[in-house]
Design brief:
350 residues, 8-stranded mixed β-sheet, 4-stranded antiparallel β-sheet, globular, binds adenosine-5'-triphosphate, single chain, Rossmann fold, binds magnesium ion, alpha/beta, 12 helices
């Protein structure tokens, strides 16, 4: 897919009122025996603008889906606040919240997961509208069939069952399910990862078209940096529940500020498009530490070839080093990281 067509920052991005505003968000899960807490997300702050695609990348277990569930209103913060289109969830009654949160939706990796195998596609399409209430059955049916067409499926598919559809068709149905709810923000969690490579581009194009036509914002979560880079206006890089870097996509990919971002890009199996490729290579060694006991200081220091004493003892500050480009690293500069004269050979960096 062509990034130029897909993901130029859209002229309708509204930077004045964020569609979601996350401040000092932490999510903790108690362990099964209740003796400890796992910090899945730790003191993260960011805004998502109306109409933008906000990409989230990071290794498995870094907290991407947990952040996504918060943005879709499925999980309440342990600490910190989340404002949905300017309104703090904590200030709304249960009833008000129910009607409010329809504008914040989530689509998952497994296209079958949200579809009941015993229900027709039409019933699956009607389900979220029934849950939200406020529409009569004729209106719901007509909206469901319109939505099917909008995602490129024929209306007669409405009478089929999920097992009669391909993975790509099922993922289109999952998108159609949320359209009648007039979403403002859709969290897309690995939405093309389970699909055949040949149809990933089609589904990504559908997301881009819907964004252009309906002004949706996306939080687009994926392991595959090339896919996130194609579709996102900005990218956040997560590691062990924290953001390491956040900035405009081209800026992050072309001039990464954080060692972890460089390492992730170096590990990318599918090469990035030439104009997004960065020449620095860094092999990511060792396993991701346990979020039950994350390293002190900078979380990445146990795997970072730039790490020095300060990285082990002091958490780096989150700073805006270039316009709209943030990172937390003791050693980086607005021009990127300094060379690694002593340890270049050891880690295969530079
Ligand atoms: N409901 C839960 N209860 C306990 N721990 C959880 C729960 N949900 C997530 N976790 C833990 O929180 C951490 C972050 O998980 P999360 O699913 O957000 O990661 P992720 O970045 O989406 O990973 P992946 O790329 O594998 O999907 C992990 O250590 C995970 O085991
Ligand atoms: Mg996940």
């Amino acid at each position: 897919m062509n990034r130029t067509a897909a993901a130029q920052p859209h002229e309708f991005i509204d930077t004045t009122t964020p569609v979601a505003s996350v401040t000092n968000l932490s999510i903790r899960f108690p362990t099964l025996d209740g003796t400890a807490e796992l910090r899945a997300v730790d003191d993260v702050s960011f805004d998502i603008r109306h109409g933008e695609t906000f990409g989230i990348i990071g290794e498995s277990g870094s907290g991407k889906s947990t952040i996504g569930r918060v943005l879709a209103g499925l999980l309440a913060p342990s600490d910190g606040t989340v404002q949905f289109d300017g309104t703090d969830r904590a200030t709304l009654s249960r009833r008000k919240w129910r009607s409010f949160r329809r504008a914040f939706q989530m689509i998952f990796q497994d296209p079958s997961a949200a579809l009941n195998p015993r229900m027709t596609i039409l019933d699956s399409l009607l389900e979220p509208m029934r849950f939200m209430g406020g529409m009569d059955s004729a209106e719901m049916r007509s909206r469901a069939l319109d939505a099917l067409e909008r995602v490129g499926l024929r209306r007669d598919l409405a009478l089929r069952y999920p097992h009669e559809l391909s993975g790509g068709q099922k993922q289109r149905v999952n998108i159609a399910r949320i359209l009648p709810l007039s979403p403002k923000l859709v969290v897309c969690d690995e939405v093309v990862a389970a699909l055949d490579v040949s149809i990933r581009g089609e589904i990504l194009n559908l997301f881009v078209e819907l964004q252009r036509d309906l002004g949706l914002a996306y939080a687009f979560i994926a392991h595959d940096i090339a896919i996130v880079a194609q579709i996102s206006d900005r990218i956040a890089v997560t590691y062990l529940g924290k953001f390491m870097e956040l900035g405009l996509t081209d800026d992050v990919i072309d001039r990464p500020l954080h060692p972890y971002t460089i390492a992730l890009m170096s590990a990318e199996p599918q090469p990035l498009p030439a104009h997004l490729r960065n020449r620095t290579r860094l092999r990511l060694e060792g396993d991701i530490p346990s979020p039950l006991d994350p390293p002190g200081g900078c979380r990445f220091h146990t795997r970072c070839p730039w790490a020095t004493e300060i990285c082990r003892t002091e958490a780096p500050e989150w700073r805006e080093l270039r316009p709209d480009h943030y990172t937390a690293c003791h050693h980086t500069t607005p021009d990127g990281l300094p060379p690694l004269p002593d340890r270049t050979g050891e880690k295969g960096a530079a």
